[in-house]
Design a protein that fits this description.
Number of strands: 9
CATH topology of the largest domain: Aspartate Aminotransferase, domain 2
Shape: globular
Distance between the termini: 9 Å
Structural class: alpha/beta
Number of helices: 11
CATH superfamily of the largest domain: Type I PLP-dependent aspartate aminotransferase-like (Major domain)
Bound molecules: pyridoxal-5'-phosphate
Oligomer: single chain
CATH class of the largest domain: Alpha Beta
Strand content: 5-15%
CATH architecture of the largest domain: 3-Layer(aba) Sandwich
Strand order of the largest sheet: 1-9-8-7-6
C-alpha cells in the first residue's frame, strides 16, 4: 500500500486542538495567539501528525460502530495479541504475555501512577534535561521534585547521557525512581544498546525503578533501530515500567489509549492499584478497535 505523507490536510473546523485552538483563547490549553493577517497557522505547538492515518484504523472503528450497542465491554484477546505481535515483529520482543500489558489512558497517566506508587510527596525523581514539559507538569501536579541530569553534547554535536552525573545525583539524593525517555524528547536521540546498558547499570547500582517512556519508538528515521529498555538485561526487564501508545505513530491521541508493559508482578500490582483508585483509567471500546486497526500488517510498514 502507498501512503501519502505529503498532502497537507485541512484540519480546520475538524475539532483539531492544534489548529482550532490557535487564537481561540481557550482556558484549558496554552494556545498560541492568532497569526498576523496574511500569515497562516502552522500547527507545530501540539505533537500531532498532519497526515491521514492508516486506513485499517477507520475500517476497524466503523466496523465496530456499525454494531449499535456500546455497553460495558471487555478488552479482547485480539487487542492483546495485536500488541504482542507488534512488539515481537518490530522490537524483537519474545515472551510478552497478556498479563504483562496494562491499559493506560495516557502515557503521562502511567507516569503519574508510577510516581505516586513508588515515591512520597516531596521526593526527588531523576530525569534528563532538557526535559519534555509533560514530565515537568506531572511532577509538579503530584508534588514531586525533578532532579535533572543534563544531557551533554559530544564533539560531534550528539546529545549523550552523563552516567557519572546520574550516579552521583541518585546516590546523593537517595533517589529510587527515574524517568528515561527513549527515544528522547526533545533531543531526538535514539539511544544505542551500549548507552542503554550503561544507563541501566547506573540504575541497577542505585536500586532505582525506571519508567521508560517509549511513546516515540515507532517513528524513527535514517535506519535507527529502537532498543526496548526491558531488552537490555534480566535486571532491566524487572526494574522497568515501559510505556507505549499508538497515539503518536497513528495520530490517535483524540481517541485516548496507551498501555504499559511491566514484567515484574510487584511493580505491576502497585501501578494497577494506584491507577484504579481514580476510577478514570478505563479503555473506550472504539479506542480498542483503533489500536487493533493500527497494529495490522498495513500499520507495520
Ligand atoms: C515523550 C512523551 N511522552 C508522553 C507524551 C504524552 O502522551 P499521552 O498523551 O499519552 O499522555 C508526549 C506527547 O507529546 C511525549 O512527547
Amino acid at each position: 500500500m502507498k501512503y501519502d505523507f505529503t498532502t497537507m490536510p485541512d484540519r480546520s473546523g475538524k475539532d483539531a486542538l492544534a489548529v482550532d485552538a490557535i487564537g481561540a483563547n481557550v482556558s484549558w490549553a496554552i494556545a498560541p495567539t492568532a497569526p498576523k493577517a496574511g500569515f497562516s497557522k502552522i500547527p507545530m505547538w501540539v505533537a500531532d501528525m498532519n497526515f491521514g492515518t492508516v486506513p485499517t484504523i477507520p475500517q476497524k472503528i466503523i466496523q465496530r460502530a456499525e454494531h449499535p450497542l456500546y455497553g460495558y465491554y471487555i478488552p479482547t484477546d485480539e487487542y492483546y495479541d495485536s500488541i504482542i505481535r507488534w512488539h515481537e515483529q518490530r522490537n524483537g520482543v519474545s515472551g510478552l504475555c497478556k498479563r504483562d500489558i496494562g491499559y493506560e489512558n495516557g502515557v503521562l497517566g502511567c507516569v503519574s501512577s508510577a510516581i505516586q506508587a513508588f515515591t512520597a510527596p516531596g521526593e526527588k525523581v531523576l530525569l534528563h534535561s532538557p526535559t519534555y514539559i509533560g514530565f515537568t507538569h506531572v511532577l509538579e501536579d503530584t508534588g514531586r521534585v525533578a532532579e535533572l541530569s543534563p544531557l551533554k553534547k559530544d564533539d560531534n554535536g550528539i546529545w549523550r547521557m552523563d552516567y557519572e552525573d546520574m550516579d552521583r545525583r541518585l546516590r546523593k539524593n537517595h533517589i529510587h525512581l527515574a524517568i528515561l525517555c527513549s527515544p528522547h524528547n526533545p533531543c531526538g536521540r535514539v539511544w544505542t544498546r551500549d548507552e542503554l546498558e550503561q544507563a541501566m547499570e547506573v540504575f541497577r547500582r542505585n536500586d532505582c525503578i525506571v519508567i521508560s517512556d517509549e511513546i516515540w519508538s515507532d517513528i524513527l528515521l535514517n535506519g535507527h533501530k529502537h532498543i526496548p529498555t526491558q531488552s537490555i538485561s534480566d535486571d532491566a526487564k524487572k526494574r522497568t515500567i515501559a510505556v507505549y501508545a499508538p497515539s503518536k505513530t497513528f495520530n490517535l491521541a483524540g481517541l485516548i489509549g496507551s498501555y504499559h508493559i511491566v514484567y515484574d508482578c510487584y511493580l505491576r500490582d502497585r501501578i494497577m492499584r494506584q491507577s484504579a483508585m481514580s476510577h478514570y483509567n478505563a479503555m473506550n471500546v472504539l479506542s480498542m478497535h483503533a489500536l487493533i486497526g493500527a497494529y495490522q500488517p498495513e500499520g507495520h510498514r
